[in-house]
Amino acid sequence: MSTAQAVHRPWPGLIEAYRARLPIGDDWTPITLLEGGTPLIHAKRISEQTGCTVHLKVEGLNPTGSFKDRGMTVAVTESVARGQQAVLCASTGNTSASAAAYAARAGITCAVLVPQGKIAMGKLAQAVMHGAKIIQVDGNFDDCLELARKLTADFPTIALVNSVNPYRIEGQKTAAFEIVDALGTAPDVHALPVGNAGNITAYWKGYNEYHRDGLSDRLPRMLGTQAAGAAPLVLGEPVKEPETIATAIRIGAPASWNTAVEAQQQSNGRFLAATDEEILAAYHLIARTEGVFVEPASAASVAGLLKSIEDGWVKRGSTVVCTVTGNGLKDPDTALRGVPPVTPVPVDPMAVVAKLGLV
């Protein structure tokens, strides 16, 4: 009989890792794809450029390629424990991919309401492959979410798994735990993109819980960046027709508006708007200088940091964590836009060297 022991203890998924800090029943079986445990990568060149110590929390390395998996594992686990027959979400893409995957894992039905023509194909492909029932709505994300809320209110056997579901927030707060576990304390500033505003709500909740229990000696200032064409929290009023290349944050009426404002105010933080040009510049910067490929909305966190360094809100020497929320493969069309056509070279080493500009 073999007496070999496992050399490496695998990450157990965030429910098992932080079960004592989550509202999980003792008899609940986690619906997990071993999400969480994502890397916190020191961004050497962005740190040099900004004069800060910058880390990237790379949430695109979750199982379905975005931070949504953190909340979805808890929300779907709770839904199954209550005997729900199906889950439903409104989505610009990432939520649908995550909900579909965790529903498939649980063996229940998933339905997705998507706004017409406003979803990146990489995300839609994921939901399709996981067997979700996809319903396109003649409206924007906010219309889809309103419809989803009405539908789940009328049909209680269907669970709504958007971030208005408090179990989503519970799962997403674990990213803050992981950051403090890695750094030993909270950063001076935490920067992240803001769309429906559940994530800034969740991070602030997580940081506060660790601080309350003495696991962090400070709290960060929260820096939430919205796209200029979809910046209701910056403007102080809903945007009826939000528009931005950053599809994941193309939201005009955030569901977690009040709690996001609380996070901003309680942390002495700020909301600001970045243009599509600023977001795309940060998108390329992250990929080319740090080797991390993110979807455009993810880069809003770095775009916001760069603007905040420029206007002095973030002081040089600060420790900053930027959450990059989704994988670049979610939206390959944006990455390939403007790429010149590839022209072949002869089968000749010198031709290759010449093409590289080395001679």
From TrEMBL:
EC number(s) given by UniProt: 4.2.3.1
CDD domains in the cross-refs: Thr-synth_1 (cd01563)
Any one Gene Ontology molecular-function term assigned to this protein's record: L-serine ammonia-lyase activity
The protein's annotated pathway: Amino-acid biosynthesis; L-threonine biosynthesis; L-threonine from L-aspartate: step 5/5
Domain Tryptophan synthase beta chain-like PALP: start-end pairs: 31-326
Residues engaged in binding pyridoxal 5'-phosphate: 94, 195-199, 325
Cofactor: pyridoxal 5'-phosphate
Chain positions found as N6-(pyridoxal phosphate)lysine: 68
Alphabetized InterPro entries for the sequence: Ser/Thr_Dehydratase (IPR050147), Ser/Thr_deHydtase_PyrdxlP-BS (IPR000634), Thr_synthase-like (IPR004450), Thr_Synthase_bac/arc (IPR026260), TrpB-like_PALP (IPR001926), TrpB-like_PALP_sf (IPR036052)
Swiss-Prot/TrEMBL GO biological process terms: isoleucine biosynthetic process; L-serine catabolic process; L-threonine catabolic process; threonine biosynthetic process
Reaction equation(s) it catalyzes: O-phospho-L-homoserine + H2O = L-threonine + phosphate
Key words of the record: Amino-acid biosynthesis, Lyase, Pyridoxal phosphate, Threonine biosynthesis
Location of cross-link Isoglutamyl lysine isopeptide (Lys-Gln) (interchain with Q-Cter in protein Pup): 150
Key word Amino-acid biosynthesis present: yes
Pfam families from the UniProt entry: PALP
Function field: Catalyzes the gamma-elimination of phosphate from L-phosphohomoserine and the beta-addition of water to produce L-threonine.
Family: Belongs to the threonine synthase family.
Name this polypeptide is given: Threonine synthase
